[in-house]
Amino acid sequence: MKVGREVERRQSADGKHLLRVFSRGPDRFYFVELSEITEKGETFWTATRTSEEHSSLQAARDAAAAQLPWAGAP
């Protein structure tokens, strides 16, 4: 499990996905995608993708845009 300080958060236009970008130091950034899931009448968020670490915030944003079709450019 990675830890760090959240530096950015964006939600998809349909409200079903959430992108959180974390910093673990001046040159260590990664993102987590969470998706809204409904099971047995309960709705909750679950992590669906966690990236590798990137050397800058912009690199993490670019990787998210490339890997998550809904994320696109901020």
List the helices and strands and how they pair.
Layout: E1 5-11, E2 17-25, E3 28-39, E4 42-50, H1 57-67
Antiparallel strand pairs: 1-2, 2-3, 3-4
| Secondary-structure-derived class | mainly beta
Q: What sequence of helices (H) and strands (E) makes up the elements?
A: EEEEH
- Inertia-based shape: globular
Strand order, sheet with most strands: 1-2-3-4
Q: Which ranges are low-confidence, i.e. pLDDT below 50, for 5 or more consecutive residues?
A: none
Ends: how far apart? 26 Å
- Helix tally equals 1
Radius of gyration: 13 Å
Largest sheet: 4 strands, antiparallel
Proportion of beta-strand residues: over 45%
Indicate the mean pLDDT.
Answer: 93
Tally the beta strands.
4
Number of domains: 1
Give the % helix: 10-25%
Record keyword descriptors for this entry:
single chain, mainly beta
Structure description:
The protein has 74 residues and is mainly β. A 4-stranded antiparallel beta sheet has the order 1-2-3-4, with helices on one face. The model has no long low-confidence stretch (mean pLDDT 93). The protein is 15% helix and 50% strand. The chain is built from 1 helix and 4 strands. It has one helix spanning 57-67; strands at 5-11, 17-25, 28-39, 42-50. 14% of the residues are buried. A hairpin with a 2-residue loop joins strand 3 and strand 4 (42-50).
